[in-house]
Every structure is written in structure tokens, then in C-alpha cells.
Amino acid sequence: MAFELIDLPYEDTALEPAVSAKTLSYHHGKHHKAYIDKTNAAVEGGDLADKSLEEVIAAARGSDQGLFNNAAQSWNHGFYWHSMAAKETSASDELKSMIDEAFGSIDGLKDKLKERGAGHFASGWVWLAVKDGKLSIEETHDGDTLADQDGVTPLLVIDLWEHAYYLDHQNARPSYLEAVSSKLDWSFASENLARGTTWQYPG
């Protein structure tokens, strides 16, 4: 069983001007595809060949850094595409209540995500997650992921690697974060919250 590059859940122009079609074509078609291809090459014919991507990530963590990086980046990118939406979406009543309790409002949450994302050193990811029954903003560095973390359910993620925004915003990560925060998919976050388990990479 080979993992596949999942389709974007919207047209490649759908996130403009926050994320251009040119950026998506490179980011999805080149970067994400390369992670998928390298993951498939690493597991082919081995003990992990028929495992889910989440199982591959968990098995490789701490034992095979190359495989871990490629598998985790494959998962993170799939989750990132779904964390954004072409049209404005709404949070469920449950999620909205939790956001209000933790951050005061959705705008308050966006401000905190932008602050943490801008302050994150070098490459990585900033997440909205459920941890110990409450909303939490988490950061992972480089290719690390929350996909296999017990007790943490990721709801949304923003990619902080320069290739996610350099063509559109150059080195101005705060400009990218400001723009992309208006594209976050609150319905996807609500589905992840309601399910209560971590999103599974399709396939």
C-alpha cells in the first residue's frame, strides 16, 4: 500500500491573496509530493509497508529520523491543507464556547496564533489543539508533529516553514500569519473536536 498525495480541498486560487496559486503549486505539488515519495520509498517491502501513516510516524519516532521527518511532514501538510478553507466557515457551538473560555473570542485566538507563530524560531508549525480537555496552542519544530501524541488532539495547524509563504510575503512571516488567519477552516476544527480523536491521513 503506497501513500498518495492528497488533492487540495479547494482550487489552487482559492486562498489568494493569503497564499497564491503559485505557492500552492510548489508547496503541494513539489514539497508535499517529495515527502510522500520518500516515505513510500523508505517503507516499501518492510514491516511498515501496510501500516497507516500515523503508525509509521509513531514507529519511526526516535528510531529512524529520516523516515520520521518525511512521514510526519507528509501528515502535517495534509492536515495543513484542510486547516484552511476557500470560504468563511463557522465554529460549532462547542468549539466557540471553548475558544471564548480560553481566548476571549475567535479574534483573540487568531491574535495568539499569530503571536506564537511570529515568535517561533526557524521552521516549524503552530497548532490549535485540545490538551487535558482544554484548548491549547502548541508549537512543533522542523518536521515534528502532533499526529502520534497521546493526550493531544490537533484541531488546526499553520505551516511556519519559509516555503509556505516566501513567494507571497518574502521574509515577512507576520504578514503571512495575518493573511492566513482569515482562511482558517473552523468547520474542520469543529469536526476534529467533535470526533475527539486525531485526524487520519486519507488512504
Describe the structure.
It is a single chain. This protein is an alpha+beta fold and 203 residues long. The protein contains 8 helices and 3 strands; from the N terminus they run H-H-H-H-H-E-E-E-H-H-H. The chain has one domain: minor pseudopilin epsh fold, CATH 3.55.40.20. It has helices at residues 21-43, 53-60, 65-82, 93-103, 106-119, 166-169, 173-180, 186-195; strands at 124-131, 134-141, 152-159. The protein has a 3-stranded antiparallel sheet. Strand 1 (124-131) and strand 2 form a beta hairpin. Helix 5 runs antiparallel to helix 7. The longest helix has 23 residues, at 21-43. The radius of gyration is 16 Å and the shape is globular.
Index terms:
three-stranded antiparallel beta sheet; single chain; alpha+beta; 12% strand
Summary, kept brief:
This protein has helices spanning 21-43, 53-60, 65-82, 93-103, 106-119, 166-169, 173-180, 186-195, and strands at 124-131, 134-141, 152-159.
Question: Helix and strand layout, with pairings?
Answer:
Layout: H1 21-43, H2 53-60, H3 65-82, H4 93-103, H5 106-119, E1 124-131, E2 134-141, E3 152-159, H6 166-169, H7 173-180, H8 186-195
Antiparallel strand pairs: 1-2, 1-3
Helix pairs in contact: 1-3, 2-3, 4-5, 5-7
